[in-house]
């Protein structure tokens, strides 16, 4: 059940009004593994926590995965822990919390999980979960100074959203390979520690404090909130774009819920608390300038990974200010690592070494003095780049796929299959961004996709079936090029006379062109074919379109 916004619950003095929201969403209904977020508010303190169960690591019981059991137990114990301390905690308290949670996990694992079921689990770990916990307390009410106490383990995070500096990561992920937030979106290295019934002796919940002297918002969230967006600033943009559009915290929560419902690839737990604002509109006004900066200076139409890195080099100056980590510069020349800590994720880690080599691919070729050697090397690199692009495609990392395919096309400019892959990637990227950033991206990616498809189709050696052309149609529809859509559909019908989808798309396109009577004729033909194929969902879609057309015809 979705928690309601915790608006003005025991207002944090001395502010007149404090606000918060919570988004709690399962990737698959009734199969989620995040524990229920915790919010414990008091007069001058509020504490929040999130928990991400690691179902891929352990067996469960009573029809629940080990991850769901672990995160739920951790949530319950943490709520009691915070209530006993009125929302406050220090480093010693965090040590006690770890003992309380892990003892309960161990007791449940020992009594309810049979030994035989442990075979094959990763390192024998049972009932595993992350935790990210924050307590907000005022220091000096006169100047709105406040202190954050942070406790975390695993890859769930605490952020501060500053009206002047933007999103700032406050906690450092516990991972086996150290990297920055930009690269971690494209990789998924295993966690180095987490809460479990079988804790390693040196595993500890991290603890630190931070102090702020400006108004802002504090967030606790699991990785489903940020891991599947294309960049760290895309997370900030999603937060601010939804904030600017709404009139209340309830609206903001609902807009975020709608956005994540469209793009979710993992469970989403996000708890947010504003600090220092006297009203929602005061909060909203304070972020308008920051939103303009994110919207105007940080592009979301980038195909070149190097340009994305340039954006990151600017953005990270404020984003990383509070973690101040020294990232590893060692290059890893090894097989890609596969993360097993989430059943729902199918993400393959690419080594830094391979990425750097791909970025420098043109420089490598410039150093080759013999044309024949260069040609052979080009062929090998093209294969490598296409394989890597295909991996990113399967991960839904369309920008990274485009980057790999574009490099391959530069090395082999007449490769129609690469052009086709680029068309597919641009098509999906366009629809993905339209889901996340409503009305921002109309057809630019789709127009680019159409150009690549048409260039590929102009090659006499390309062989594409009618089914292959469906994604070409998808790009044309995204570009609203309805004349071309109808033309391609007729080409498909020549090869597949009873293609219901082609008649469906023709009818839809003609409806968009206000050719209502002929649109109705083609839609009814599609409906007849769908009924033969017993595709009743499509039949319902056709009925809805026909009803709209009939209403328009009656009105005229």
TrEMBL record:
InterPro entries: PPM-type-like_dom_sf, PPM-type_phosphatase-like_dom, TPR-like_helical_dom_sf, TPR_rpt. Keywords: TPR repeat. TPR repeats lie at residues 382-415. Residues 45-242 form the PPM-type phosphatase domain. This is Tetratricopeptide repeat protein. It comes from Iningainema tapete BLCC-T55.
